[in-house]
Design a protein that fits this description.
The complex is a heterodimer of chains A (177) and B (662). By secondary structure, chain A is of the alpha/beta class. Chain A has one domain: Glutaredoxin. In chain A, 40% of the residues lie in helices and 23% in strands. Chain A contains six helices and seven strands, in the order H-H-E-E-E-H-E-H-E-H-E-E-H. Chain B is α+β, with helices and mostly antiparallel strands. Helices cover 65% and strands 11% of the residues of chain B. Chain B has 20 helices and ten strands. In chain B, a hairpin with a 2-residue loop joins strand 2 and strand 3. The chains are: A alpha/beta (177), B alpha+beta (662). Chains A and B meet through helix 2, helix 3 and helix 4 of A and helix 11, helix 12, helix 13 and helix 14 of B.
């Protein structure tokens, strides 16, 4: 390679990084069409958080509309989302189930002890296998699954109040009819 | 009136920064002494005005002046005085004031202590630091004015975030900023050298002590932060791979590479281009960290600014400073030329490997930190990769580097022999292998990760000791007296030993706490006893106490070992009424072998509580290791070769320079 060009590499790399940073400034959490929306939710069985003697079986959920929230104690955005989940749990409009992704029971439980637990039951996914079935990019992600076990909606990133009011609540009303 | 004085001082400081950052450079270029002589007085005046602004803002906190918006948002009349003063850096605007004050402090130090430098070089150096300052002062004045008035004034303030109401808040941010803003000096040295076209042994010798001071501060700052998280966040972790932590850790990794690379440049006149690039990178990462934290592009528990205008401003600033530096680099660096040749097996090559490992590690942290942003920019949604990524990738990259750490210092410059190094280190290898099996077995469980961790920790520590023995042996020819021999070894060498030994201690701490910590979540009624190992924790109930600005339920736990008293722990659950937030204050019984960590969860019926008890073996070794590293840096600084004020050294440098120029 030309000797002088070699010295330009750091500069080029830097400007690529700047491009991403600039774009990053104007981004908002937004939805991405998921190939799984409209397809049956993968069924799974997993131990329940802090109570490994029990097993959560997603097949048992047939006949009700439910929400699967993928989260982890190490995830900063989940902490941001947490109050919204708490509010949802309080309203009692829908059963929220958690999937604790690549996490340890102790750390997850510590977060719940400190901030409160919005979930009906939490299944654990220690090695991320269930996450792969569901096409989890990262946490948090949330799925709405209907009475027949079909995924109707996927939220990537934290659920904000806006998403809750404009997307999730209307969809639940429709599905629960 | 006071806030207006502060605001006016900031504007004056900005004007003087412009003078400092431009005219002297023109002066050196045009050979105009009147202009170039402005550098020092302009820098000192800028420092004075920044200091006045800082004092005015802190005075407003002291005086509870809630007609200042920033004070009203971050303080409260019931807040204890120490926290009121520290609340200055509790929010975005004040953090920026702290940043720019520390930059001015470093510049002031350069004008006072860098007297041995050739005049033109010194002027360029100070002027480049002025340029860095211009951008930050403009940023504060135009987008983040901390002196903005609130009319009518608030009756009382909204209080400092309770998470920040901790002694750690008083020390951690200034020390941390001293570290990463301190890399601006190494950066300015690199830019001045590129402008000057002089990049040689003397340049490296001038840069080294400044870089080491910044590195020592950064090491301590990160360690403080980690310790703070350990006892304040309430779930016993000590490092979270949070974007804000990464922002300080990346400059540390590159700064560590820089310290080693500078040593090669000074001793062997090699790695010159690489050293300059590292100097630019270390400070660039500090700036990038500031951008990531301050612009709010990343979702983080720490970020408190989400105003795109600020983000755009910092980004433009980044483009000018880093982009400008890299353009200069691409233009001038090709002329620097390569250093002396060296063999594949030599100290140079091992230090180069060390550099590559550290930079790769910093790169992996950068990737992990930016990845969520990257995916978002590409339209894949907001996500976070978290510790599973960092633990796997970072450890895998660092492990071979840590192994080489044992070999490197024993290798000879230019050409070394692997069998010879192997012979010298066979004792260390045996000790490390035996402990890798023995220690985990003693702790009760042998896993691959703990075995590897213990091996590396003992390996690094024991090879460091062998290095000392080896050094004494090679001197023994001169005198058989051990004390004389130990005295004869330069302090910088001891500094290196101590810092490397600290790494060993750190690795052992991390490995053992990760492998053998135990924890229990319990429901405890009054007088319940929890038994963990040979320890009994008796819950004596809680009592309500009132703090200066909070109410607290304080639990009392009496810890005994087979009936003998060990300690009493009093964790608290605090309620801060101003912000309506609840804080968990764990109580920790620290120890060399293990920490006992108790925190209160939720109150249950009839005075019972959910309680969390951890046993954290060797966790203190993590911070002890970091402190040893910093002490090593301080020892290296006291070595007479680098004493900044040493007149003889200054004279020698000047002589060397004259020889070079002749």
């Amino acid at each position: 390679m030309n000797r002088t060009l070699k010295f330009l590499i750091p500069l080029v790399l830097f400007f690529i990084a700047v491009g991403f940073l600039f774009k990053g400034l104007y981004l908002d959490p937004h939805e991405v069409p998921s190939p799984l929306v409209g397809k049956p939710a993968p069924t799974f069985q997993a131990p329940v958080l802090s109570d490994a003697s029990k097993t959560f079986n997603s097949a048992d959920m047939k006949g009700q509309v439910w929400l699967l929230n993928v989260w982890a104690s190490w995830c900063g955005a989940c902490r941001e989302e947490h109050p919204v989940l708490m509010a949802m749990a309080k309203s009692g409009q829908i059963a929220t189930y958690g999937l604790d992704y690549k996490d340890t029971d102790q750390e997850a439980q510590a977060v719940l002890d400190a901030n409160g637990n919005p979930y009906k039951t939490i299944a654990t996914d220690v090695n991320g296998k269930i996450g792969i079935d569901y096409g989890v990019y990262g946490v948090p992600e949330t799925y709405i699954i209907d009475k027949t076990g079909v995924i109707r909606y996927k939220q990537i990133g934290p659920i904000t109040e806006e998403v809750l009011i404009n997307k999730i609540v209307p969809m639940l009303k429709e599905l629960q009819r | 009136m006071i806030p207006e004085i502060g605001q006016f001082s900031l504007i004056l400081a900005f004007c003087f920064a412009i003078v400092q950052g431009t005219l002297p450079l023109v002066g050196v270029w045009k050979n105009n002494a009147a202009l170039s002589n402005l550098a020092v007085p302009a820098a000192r005046t800028q420092f004075a005005f920044v200091a006045i602004a800082f004092i005015c803002l802190d005075y407003s906190f002291y005086a509870n002046d809630f007609s200042v918006l920033y004070v009203a948002s971050n303080s409260n009349s019931h807040l204890p005085l120490a926290y009121r003063l520290a609340a200055l850096w509790g929010g975005h605007e004040g953090s920026m004031i702290l940043w720019v004050s520390i930059l001015a402090l470093w510049t002031m130090a350069v004008t006072l202590f860098a007297k041995s430098l050739p005049e033109t070089f010194r002027i360029r150096l100070i002027s480049v630091m002025g340029m860095v300052s211009i951008g930050f002062l403009a940023f504060i004045i135009f987008t983040s004015n901390p002196f903005e008035r609130l009319i009518p004034a608030a009756l009382d303030g909204r209080d400092l975030n309770p998470l920040l109401q901790d002694p750690g808040m008083v020390f951690h941010p200034p020390v941390l900023y001293m570290g990463y803003v301190g890399f601006s000096v190494a950066f300015a040295f690199a830019i001045a050298a590129l402008l000057d076209g002089r990049l040689d042994i003397t340049w490296a010798r001038w840069t080294r002590p400044w870089t080491t001071v910044a590195w020592v501060f950064l090491t301590l700052g990160i360690a403080f932060g980690s310790k703070w998280a350990y006892y304040e966040l309430g779930w016993g972790g000590w490092w979270f791979w949070d974007a804000v932590e990464n922002a300080s850790f990346m400059p540390w990794l590159v700064g560590t590479a820089l310290i080693h690379s500078l040593a090669v440049t000074e001793k062997r006149d090699a790695f010159k281009v690489w050293t300059v690039l590292l100097s630019i990178c270390a400070f660039s990462l500090s700036l990038l960290g500031t951008f990531l934290v301050r612009s709010g592009v990343l979702t983080s528990v720490h970020a408190f600014a989400t105003d795109p205008r600020r983000g755009v401003f910092i980004l433009m600033y980044l483009v000018v400073v880093i982009g400008g530096a890299l353009i200069l680099f691409a233009w001038r660096a090709p002329k620097v030329g390569l250093g002396e040749k060296f063999d594949v097996v030599s100290r140079e090559s091992m230090l180069l490997t060390n550099n590559v490992v550290l930079v790769a590690a910093a790169g992996s942290v950068l990737l992990g930190t930016m990845y969520p942003l990257l995916m978002d920019a590409l339209g894949a949604g907001k996500i976070s990769v978290g510790p599973p990524y960092f633990d796997a990738v970072f450890v895998a990259i660092m492990a071979p580097g840590l192994f080489l750490m044992g070999l490197g210092p024993l290798a000879k410059w230019r050409k070394a022999s692997l069998p010879e190094i192997g012979m010298r280190l066979r004792v260390a290898a045996v000790i490390s292998l035996v402990s890798a099996l023995l220690v985990p077995l003693l702790m009760g469980k042998l896993t691959l990760m703990t075995a590897v961790g213990v091996f590396l920790g003992i390996w690094v520590a024991s090879t460091t000791l062998i290095l000392l023995v080896n050094r004494i042996k090679t001197r023994k020819i001169a005198t058989p007296d051990l004390v004389e021999n130990l005295k004869g070894i330069p302090l910088a060498f001891y500094g290196m030993l101590l810092a490397h030994f600290g790494i060993g201690v750190f690795i052992l701490g991390v490995t053992l706490v990760k492998g053998y910590e135990s924890e229990q979540d319990l429901r405890m009624d009054k007088n319940d006893v929890a038994k963990i190992g040979n320890l009994e924790f008796r819950f004596d109930g809680t009592q309500e106490i009132a703090g200066p600005n909070y109410m607290s339920s304080q639990g009392t736990f009496t810890v005994t070992s087979n009936g003998k008293p060990v300690t009493v722990l009093q964790p608290e659950k605090r309620f801060y009424p101003v912000q309506g937030s609840v804080m968990t204050e764990a109580d920790i019984g620290p120890g060399v072998i293990k920490d006992l960590y108790v925190s209160l969860g939720e109150p249950l019926e009839n005075g019972a509580w959910s309680v969390r008890i951890y046993i954290k073996p060797f966790v203190q070794w993590i911070w002890a290791g970091a402190i040893l590293m910093a002490l090593g840096g301080i020892l290296a600084l006291t070595d007479k070769r680098y004493r900044i004020l040493n007149k003889k050294a200054a004279k020698e440098a000047q002589d060397a320079l004259e020889v070079f120029e002749a």
